[in-house]
Amino acid sequence: MRIGLITDIHANLEALEAVLAVLDGKRIDFLACLGDVVGYGGQPDECCNRIRTLADACVLGNHDAAVCGRMDYSYYRVPAREALDRHAARLSDVNREWLMSLPYQATVGDVALCHGSPASLQDFEYIFVLEQMRELVARHAELAPVTFIGHSHLCKAFAFDHERADELLRTRFTLEPERKHLITVGSVGQPRDYDPRACCAIYDTEARHFEYLRVPYDIEAAARKIVDSGLSVTFGKRLFLGV
User: Which end of the chain has a smaller Cβ tally under 10 Å, C or N?
Assistant: First the structure.
């Protein structure tokens, strides 16, 4: 099975459509979304429509949880809170109910899907450096052979066992035998690795091969929609920089 992996769309329809077009040409069998369909961008309802109808599995992200009332986001920075408030007001009833129904975790065979750390699903903890892998190493036996996450907006991959974790510094690789893997698949709508192109990934379960894909899209149009929506101009500017 070839699994297409997308996450952290953040209401960026231009980036989402570009990624979906690429994945459509890659013969994927299953489309998985790892959360944060909304937040920051200019088209939350439109992105929800696309993911709700196309994804074979979708898990809850922290921004999704915030806009549908499943978590407190009063401690977020003011621009992020304002974006979430606006998105909550713009969501259709169908999409709000859909977000309310999303699970914290889903599985496809021996593959686990979640937004943040699988060790604390409802806390949406980040994992993007080796130090943050300590808890997963300690709980090695409890975890799926392969776990895909989002949340950090970065492209990070780790192989681990019950003794240690190692970072895999490649954009395509075959998973190591006898070790488990945790892989963050970047961000469709708001990359933060200084590459402004949208990011997605493909995992072949039979070959155990993983690959990141970077996709150019109309950043100017996406940024314009952010400004036109009355959201912080900063959210538009950062799209050009990939930060």
Answer: N
